[in-house]
Amino acid sequence: MTLLTSLARVVAARVGRAQPTKTRRHVHLSARPLMLIPLQLAGEACAPLAAMVGDDRHKPLQLTVHEPRDRSRRFEFTADLAEAVLAYIDGFATKPEDDDQPFPDAPQLLMPNAGGVAFTRLLGRSTRFRRTDGEYAVPAAVPLLGRWLSYYAERAEVTGSALLVPLTASLADHWATGQSATEDANLAALLSWIDPPDGMTGSEAARVAEDPVHCPPAGPATDPTFDNEVLDHLLKAVRHAAAAGDGAALARAQAAMDAALRSQLEPTWELMWRSVDLLRALPEAASVTERWKSDRWSFTSQVGWLRDGGAPQPRRDGAVAAARRLARLEREQQRLAVQRAYDDPLVMAEHRLTGEAFAGDVTAADPARLDTEGRRPKLRPWITVATMDEVILEQGAVLRSPDRPGQEATVIEIAAAGAAATGDLTRVTLVTLELAQGRVPACTRVPPAREHAVDARRPARGQRGDRRRRRARGLVLTGRGEQAGGQA
């Protein structure tokens, strides 16, 4: 938790309403996402009980396993779920006009919380290896659904991916509440802080939302009281009617179970669409489009792999595959950190507080300076920035600008410049790298003295570009209204 987030939580607790920690929406939201709310039977690792799924706010599809301990009934449920999910996915697998481009769009799954994502991973693992012939055969759609669910669960681990989004995580990333992170995992309580009803504070609304009678859990676990007092009796009624061979009694018992589970699912369904409305109200960050294109490429590759008869995902990665995956996850996490800082001034402000970025005024500039140490002179302008931010950079640190990501600068000197009216002033001297071709600098590339340089943040290593940019260690300053600073 950063200093600004901690401060926002204190303010939220004092004023009774969640405080924004981002000025931009850093997650892609599809125009037609697929909502999925799974419920599982208590005490079972992966025994589906019911699900509500659909991409139409007013037409959710409810699926129920009336005997969740019966293996055949579970796979009947999975086949019905596959029919809904695969039809949605297939609608996006259209061939692009250019073979060198990904599909125009990709299917996005939204789930209420991280528990739903974990259940999706387990369901995918338990179904993707099922045989479609021989003993215990399952419909062909079942293992295919398992492979897609496993794929989506793996993409959910990639920082910045928006193919599978737990809404509690996205909401908590954009707002700070006056409750703990564990309490933020409750979708109803979290929304109560962000958008409390009229006449109530966030704390009061969250207290009401935590009542499982008023707001049932968002799954996959159900309320224990509901399990003991309602669900257990309904399951017994279904078993007794099935054992007696009474078709009419069985239909009544199943209808009663459907209605009871619908009462547990519908409140979460409404909360999820309300969450989407709140997130859509935020302006989308500039880098979201680039990350979504990466998701589209991933989806395109997965479709091609399945169409070519590729094997299911292994139960465990090998040593080399695991190392590559870990390295890729680290790169994506670093890349997201850079992009969010570039896109959002509140994120950049957090890095300024830690000294990883700084803002200040350009006090001197020498755009025509030449470096004569090599065989031939090279254009290496000098820029001096005065800042009141704490700077933790060291000499030789390579920096980069959010507004001019193609520019780099190297810290030459950091020295105290004296005291200002509101605090100590630090002078940072930078030398920029490869700003222009030839020996005449472009006047727009080097900020003149008395201009304001604002913010910067760390490595461009996560950014796409040539090998030199990927090795860069930080961010840089430029001119008025632009950003400066970086990290060693």
Notes on the protein architecture:
The radius of gyration is 27 Å and the shape is globular. The longest helix has 34 residues. The chain contains 14 helices and 15 strands. Helix 2 packs across helix 4. The strands form 4 sheets. A 6-stranded antiparallel beta sheet has the order 12-13-14-11-8-15, with no helix packed on it. It has a 5-stranded mixed beta sheet with strand order 4-3-2-5-6, with helices on both faces. The C terminus is likely disordered. The two termini are 22 Å apart. It folds into 2 domains: 313 residues, no CATH class; 127 residues. It is of the alpha+beta class. A hairpin with a 7-residue loop joins strand 2 and strand 3.
Write the layout of secondary structure elements.
Blueprint: H1 3-15, E1 19-20, E2 34-40, E3 48-54, E4 61-64, H2 71-90, E5 109-111, H3 114-127, H4 141-156, E6 164-166, H5 167-174, E7 175-176, H6 181-184, H7 187-194, H8 202-209, H9 224-244, H10 247-280, H11 288-307, H12 319-343, H13 345-354, E8 360-366, E9 370-371, E10 378-379, E11 382-387, E12 398-400, E13 408-420, E14 423-433, E15 452-453, H14 467-471
Parallel strand pairs: 2-5, 5-6
Antiparallel strand pairs: 1-7, 2-3, 3-4, 8-11, 8-15, 9-10, 11-14, 12-13, 13-14
Helix pairs in contact: 2-4, 3-4, 5-10, 7-8, 9-10, 12-13
